[in-house]
Structure formats: structure tokens, C-alpha cells
Design brief:
Elements lengths: L6 H28 L9 H20 L23
């Protein structure tokens, strides 16, 4: 049976949404048991990862390096005839 092309992205998005929902539920239960706040319960390496990711996005949005290749202009409509040697 062949599925339409849009089914794979939908399945992936649903899987990720369910995974995030389950992890949030378990994290909130763990926070309540330990008596920690929301920010205190996040490990340092995850905070660092998100900070680096935000910095990379900011650099890409603000800096936006240009293409080094010069743009090719349109050739003239009537090119000059080449010199022909007899």
C-alpha cells in the first residue's frame, strides 16, 4: 500500500509532539517530588545548548553573509562578431 507524500511529515510531527508531552508530564512530576522550580530543574548543559543555539540563530539572522561570487549580468542582445582570420 502506498501512502501519500504528506503522511511521513505528519507522523514525525505527531511522534515528536507526543514525546514532548510525555516528557513534560514526567518532568513536572519530578519537579513536584523534588520541590524545585522550573528553571532550577533544567540541567546546565541543556541551558548552554539552548544559549548556543540562540546565539547561532542570532548570528545567522543579523550577520547574513553574502555570496562572494559576482552576479552574472545578462549578455548583450547582439554580440560583436568575432574577427575571422583567412
Amino acid at each position: 500500500m502506498k501512502f501519500p507524500l504528506w503522511t511521513l511529515p505528519v507522523v514525525v510531527v505527531l511522534f515528536i509532539a507526543i514525546r514532548i508531552s510525555v516528557s513534560r508530564t514526567f518532568r513536572s512530576i519530578e519537579r513536584r517530588q523534588k520541590g524545585k522550580g522550573r528553571i532550577e530543574s533544567i540541567p546546565f548543559w541543556i541551558k548552554g545548548f539552548w544559549a548556543l543555539l540562540a546565539l547561532a540563530v542570532l548570528i545567522l539572522v543579523v550577520w547574513a553573509p553574502r555570496n562572494a561570487n559576482p552576479s552574472v549580468s545578462n549578455p548583450p542582445a547582439n554580440p560583436a562578431p568575432a574577427a575571422v582570420k583567412p
